[in-house]
Amino acid sequence: MFVLKLISFFPLWLLYLIADFLYFIAYHLTKYRRNVVVGNLQKAFPEKAEGELRLIEKQFYRSLTDFAVETVKSHSMSPKQFKKRVIFKNLELLQKYKGKPIMFMASHQFNWEWMQLSAALQFPFEIDYIYQPLKLKSFDRYMIKLRSRFGAQPINRHNAAREIIKSSKKGRGFAMVADQVPGRNVRIYWTQFLNQETAYFMGTEALAKLIKCPVVYFAIQKIKRGYYEVDIVEIAEPPYQKEDHSILENYSKATEQNIRKHPSQWLWSHKRWKYTKAEAEASKVI
Fold first, then answer.
1. Are 214 and 229 in contact (CB under 8 A)?
2. What integer pLDDT is reported at residue 138 of this predicted model?
């Protein structure tokens, strides 16, 4: 972790040279999760020609290695740099939610780490972020400290319900990257996403309903190397009906729309579709 902190003081132009080298290693030499990436792209975009898919694949690996060095750089970047490099296009939209709880849903669209840090600097209220603890404890502590640089407070996903209920009365925002594959021991909601039957964790929706808060989606797009824009998209607001799943449906649609606009910017190396609906139903995971 000390080495990563030291590297963070390298200028970005030098870090991007390192990213170019990492791209060559990941794509050409080790072929890091190439089978997963290729399989995901083929299933998500059956209408695209092989050459177009190959271009998206290469661009993804460049974005992935850029993301790696950008995340390291986050340790030493100033607030001014974050505000310059991550622009929220319609930040004024959030003013009407000031003093009220609000839930922010993002996806693994690059660069979600810079977006969270910049949001903590620019939003008109404080933010808590829900995180999945990492197995490597030293790296887990490193990432918590990094993400909390500008006052955002971490919430372990295992304690999310209790902490969100407690903090919701303070008018805070709650941010989460919500496109992970859910485990088989939780309540699951199924919908079509990128041409595939896709499972979503229902806890996010349940929490928004419980504290009766609006839900906003962050549509991130890369403008050029090291610069991003975020469109703040309202996807749901109370009152909610008990059997209404518009939060997850609208989140899934907004995520897919953003991916189709910027296909190389999503985390294709993630094993998003680990099991099918049929397999889940066969094992009584519904």
1. no
2. 86
pLDDT tens across 7-48, in order? Answer: 889 999 999 999 999 999 999 999 999 999 999 999 999 999
Span 169-176, average pLDDT: 87
pLDDT surpasses 90 at 142 = no
Q: What is the DSSP letter of 90?
A: T
C-beta of residue 190 within 8 angstroms of C-beta of residue 273: no
Contacts of 263 (CB under 8 A, 6+ apart): 41, 45, 56
> Six-digit token pair at 48?
């695209």
Length of the chain (residues): 286
The number of angstroms, rounded, from the C-alpha of 50 to the middle of its chain's C-alpha atoms is 27
CA distance 152 to 22: 30
> What is the dihedral sign for C-alpha 118, 180, 212, 190?
positive
Residue matched to tokens 């008990």: 242
- Residue tagged 């610069």 (tokens): 227
What are the helix (H) ranges across the chain?
Answer: 2-7, 12-23, 34-44, 50-73, 79-85, 112-122, 137-147, 160-167, 203-211, 246-261, 277-282
CA nearest to 247, candidates 257, 235, 255: 235
Report the alpha-carbon distance of residue 254 to residue 135 in Å, rounded.
31
Q: How far apart are CA 161 and CA 159, in angstroms?
A: 6
